[in-house]
Amino acid sequence: xxxxxxxxxxxxxxxxxxxxxxxxxxxxxxxxxxxxxxxxxxxxxxxxxxxxxxxxxxxxxxxxxxxxxxxxxxxxxxxxxxxxxxxxxxxxxxxxxxxxxxxxxxxxxxxxxxxxxxxxxxxxxxxxxxxxxxxxxxxxxxxxxxxxxxxxxxxxxxxxxxxxxxxxxxxxxxxxxxxxxxxxxxxxxxxxxxxxxxxxxxxxxxxxxxxxxxxxxxxxxxxxxxxxxxxxxxxxxxxxxxxxxxxxxxxxxxxxxxxxxxxxxxxxxxxxxxxxxxxxxxxxxxxxxxxxxxxxxxxxxxxxxxxxxxxxxxxxxxxxxxxxxxxxxxxxxxxxxxxxxxxxxxxxxxxxxxxxxxxxxxxxxxxxxxxxxxxxxxxxxxxxxxxxxxxxxxxxxxxxxxxxxxxxxxxxxxxxxxxxxxxxxxxxxxxxxxxxxxxxx
Length: 441
Ligand SMILES: [Mg+2]
Description:
This protein is of the alpha+beta class.
């Protein structure tokens, strides 16, 4: 056996483990297990009723087991007696195919067969709001251009410093924290890693930010668009592809510093973007952020068309620097595992088919888009994204039709639930349903 969790518990004085997993809707579920029971749990997993979570299962199904991955262990920096573990789901002695971590691992294996690994970083934006979720936490944070506002940042110093200190302790290499483009909005950045580690950290980061905000009597939300007139929460990802210690995206002879393989990969992402919205922008509320009118700060900072460019933030894909690109499509409700899995699946398709992204578009999309009426548009509602996903040959092949059908079924049920109570109109205020179901996404 790999690392022995019961031994580690003794060394680190861990009394309890959170054996956790993320379901298809990105909800973090867990069991709190005393150290005395971890030996058996590490071997056999913690038992769950799968139907009780957002996985496509039946109440008649047998037990589902979450088997913890010891490499994912994080000792809670604010409560050292607890160790957090990401898990893989098993049922009837087989991995659960339609579970997000498994879906990512499958794509990682496909990539590893080419001798490649994806490295990525995520930029999780969030708002600090009051506990009721009705307004931003700081009523003095009212500037019309509040980005990088030092005073508003420093009024939240104790909270932000606490989270950043924890990331330092955990060895994540955090390197900057700032006030973002909306009143009440912040972002904290840490080093990129391989995609599974980044996904596990992404899950833990959201849990940590929400927990520490509560400790400070506030609430943190990653909801894509919690306030109509303010910039929404993006979750941009910077990606590069590696063979051992070599970044195969890098070509210093190219104008933008990208290799042929990088352009093929990027073209794959462009090709599947409209279907991947179902993973990257998975909530009804997501479509208030995409193709949104300018906000009070002057820009929505979110894309509306499928385009790529150089160092220009008005496009879906930006090449900020040699050897990597930034995908700006995802929002705060994206499932951390499906984000990475979707990028890899689309990228592999691009490489396999040697897709060509064409020339980059070098315009300001927020002012000049009207001059380019033939660009591919991103879906304007979740229904459209799901339809694209059903019809995507590439994504169905990458994940298997059964897995995609499970996802679509659950998401369509969610839309039915919404439609029974509300109507989605972008020009109308955010609905109560969206707030109730997305504020804690
Ligand atoms: Mg940002």
